[in-house]
Amino acid sequence: MKSYKLIALFIWRASAAPQNIKPTAAVLPEDVAVNAGIDPALVGKPIFEIIPDNASPGSQGVSKRQIPTQPSVVYRVDSMPPDAVKAQGGFPPREADLGKANFAIYGHSHNTLSGKDSPYVSTSVRPDGAEIFASPGKTSYLYEIKTTPNMIDTFSTLGGNKMTSKGEPYLLHKAEREVLALGGVKWDQVQSVTALPNGRDTNKSERKKVTNKDYNPKYNEFKAGGTQHQLAGFPPGHEAWTTSPWNQFKDADIRESGLQFADANGAAIEDERPQKTSPGKDGDESHPNAVPNGEKKRPLGERIQESRFLQFLADLDPAFLEPLINGIKAGDFSVEDLQLGFKRAVSVTMTKRWADFGDGDKAAESLKNIAFDIFSTFRYATPVGYWEDVIKNLPAIAKEIHEGKTPEEKLEIANRDINDVVKTWSKTPLGLVNEALMKVLSGYAPPVQTAVSTLNKIWSYTPFGWLVNQFAPIDSLIEKNIQVRSDEI
After folding, report:
1. Which residues pair with 121 in a beta bridge?
2. Which residues are registered as beta bridge partners of 384?
3. What UniProt keywords apply to this chain's record, in alphabetical order (predicted)?
């Protein structure tokens, strides 16, 4: 294949390949784990899982221009005073059992859901939007709430200002600029409370904002979930089902989409998140979504909704991987060398951009989260452009590793200039897998299968491997032992 054709293939796969992904949990095989020296506690457990949501990049609006602005805080007006809200743990949804919930955002927005069906709690991106519900002359309270990934933008999900051919709006109550919190809002998400003694007619001089001493700063790292077209839930026959992006979800099971979203985005409120049970009898363990009575069911490892991960990919310039592909083509290094050099590239880039992190504690906090929230760490918790710089630094490091003559020499080169923060990350679940992979790829660990099989098994357990796999035909390169010439592949 000519060089220009390879680049064309590369760019096509960047947009088309993710649509055909059928991800499964990355379960670490016992034979690979034992022979590669991986922590036995990880054997048989998902390291991370990309959860499909039947969405293509186009349908989820993943281009930079389409992604809506995500607020850092939202607001809710309630007649309930702060002490009462605290006593009940925050703002729970009317339907706390996700197995019985109706996830259709259209129904919630248009008030077509029965009160007990809704798993959402309403908030607004603006104080005045929330104050619509503060009756004049009656005491109300304006709650300022930190956003978390379980919060969905109603406006963009239902099409904002779109109208049907009959002039009917897709969305009512636009002025509210509603954001829905699936599963509710916890008390320690509330940042402040402002008393409104005269409801929405309360003068500015009469308003007193009080900081919530119970606010948990752990929420500072989170962002709202944004647009979720798969949860729109327009009624049968609605024109939206014939237009993009909603036509992609016409035949989808909205209950399954809702449960997937809850699993992927409920980590922020995990310890008090509503449980999934069967739509019938509570605690009916015969149902696939059932949870035994009194028992909380928490998935092992990290689960990431596919559309959210694709948003991260879409924010990157696809050309950022071209130096990696070109280096493989030229024989400067192999895919194995790239993986071996990943940890060092992370460290070198961090050292070069240390001022962007501010201090060691912030850097450590950013990297340790890779084990728990890959997407949030990649997209939000590190300085802008950090991971792009990691990729840019990889070719030179991989080339240096490629020149190593022995497994010991390759590992020694790969482990040069590793700062303490990255050394700490190497002890996390994902870091341990990366360490084991380095040993296998260098030839230092005893092979338990063919090199191709071993590499295929472990490659996708790393965030770097999963990312690169979306752009480059890794399987075909591996099968050919990375013997790629400029005129064919």
Report:
1. 181
2. none
3. Disulfide bond, Signal, Toxin, Virulence
Q: Give pTM, 2 decimals.
A: 0.46
| Lookup result for tokens 């959402």 | 120
Backbone angles phi, psi at 161, to 5 degrees: -95, 10
Tell me what the pLDDT averaged over the chain comes to: 66
CATH superfamily placement of domain 73-300: Heat-Labile Enterotoxin, subunit A (3.90.210.10)
CA 376 to CA 309: how far, in whole Å? 9
Rg (CA), the chain: 25
Distance CA 415, CA 374 (A): 23
Q: Compute the distance between CA of residue 488 and CA of residue 276 in angstroms, rounded to an integer.
A: 51
Burial class (CB in 10 A: 0-12, 13-18, 19+), 389: buried
Residue pair 131/200 in contact by the 8 Å Cβ criterion: yes
Among 116, 70, 81, 113, which residue's Cα sits nearest to residue 96? Answer: 116
Residue bearing tokens 């002025």: 175
Neighbour count for residue 359 (Cβ, 10 Å): 10
The DSSP secondary-structure symbol of 378 reads I
Mind listing the pLDDT tens digit for each residue in 369-424? 433 333 333 333 445 566 667 778 889 998 999 999 888 898 899 889 887 766 76
Q: How far apart are CA 251 and CA 207, in angstroms?
A: 49
Domain boundaries, the chain: 3-47+306-479, 73-300
State the alpha helices, DSSP H only, in 369-428. 374-376, 386-402, 407-414, 420-425
Q: Which amino acid is at 159?
A: G
Distance (Å, whole) CA 417 – CA 401: 13
